[in-house]
Amino acid sequence: MQGKFFLDTNIFVYSFDGTAHEKQQQARELIKSALRSGNGHISFQVIQEFFNVATRKFATPMSLLAGKEYFDKVFMQLEVISPDGEYIKTALDIAATTGYSLYDALIISAALKAGCNTLYTEDLQNGQKIRNLTIVNPFTA
Length: 141
Hints:
- It contains 6 helices and 6 strands; from the N terminus they run E-H-H-E-H-H-E-H-H-E-E-E.
- It has one domain: 5'-nuclease (Rossmann fold), CATH 3.40.50.1010.
- It is an alpha/beta fold.
- It has a 6-stranded mixed sheet.
- Helix 5 (85-98) packs across helix 6 (102-113).
């Protein structure tokens, strides 16, 4: 992995999913790489989406205290992108031109704002380039 990269919510969710062992291992490697290299980026949206799933939809929901510990150990060690006016306008443009939902476009916009080369997600079109950003599904063989 070279350069800055962005991790979508599903990467963090899969890192806890013992029923999808290969995806879990791949997700954990991406997170470790992000933490080691300092090149990993996320947005507040990713944090919010993760905790919504982790505390409500995991087979054993994450407690708020465990969530706080994970937040400190993982999320706060990554570069967190905050929204601003340009970020929102860019997302609206992306949604209008690509047909992606506004929420997906916000993820793309955050990755662009961070100057990332790669967005790791399974939710968008693998291999698609949007400006200088390439979408990569890390779970495809």
